Amino acid sequence: MTKKERFIEAVVDIEWIQFQQVHNEGGRASCQDDRETFEIMRKSQFLAWTEEVLESYLQDLRDAWKEGWNLLTEKYARMMESTAPEEYERFREILPKRSGKRIRMQEELISQEIWWAEDFSRRFPNLGGTGRKIYTSEDTPWDTSQETYLRGEISTYSDRTIALYAAMIREMEERGENLTEQILGFMVRFYGYDSLEQAEEKTAENRNL
């Protein structure tokens, strides 16, 4: 196992434990009993990250754990600002505060990643249509968009991690890469496909059955 793979295993292990401690308004969510899917989703994301960002985020998780803070609970609480505003008010004051500069940085990153999601959906419309809606404006209490999910997640990163993450995103942009495409590329391989093109074709066939 490579150093990066060890980081990913450690991150996913801690996230899974913290995910078990997330309390939902309607009771325990079914996804909290599906570790296989959880691992596929999270590993697909982390495989697209640099080792440096992974190591920093792993330290975020460990630091939070020592302090008795749950980053997964924080992530879902932050999403509720859009999906469940009234319930969000119960968390507003206890969530870590982010500066205006930090929020502007986050929004720039989100804008780039939403562009990547749009580009991916144009080129792989069937695969793109199987996941979350793209925009916060499409949120419902039962359906969280990619934009809102991303905003919730990156808001939990430490200043150190967000700086490294931002550098990674800028470097990918400069190289003409697409983070969404990379993550989905890893994901379809976990599900047994050889390529995104093969998964797109099979998804289209299934939709036409």
From TrEMBL:
<protein>
    <submittedName>
        <fullName>DUF4125 family protein</fullName>
    </submittedName>
</protein>
<dbReference type="InterPro" id="IPR025191">
    <property type="entry name" value="DUF4125"/>
</dbReference>
<dbReference type="Pfam" id="PF13526">
    <property type="entry name" value="DUF4125"/>
</dbReference>
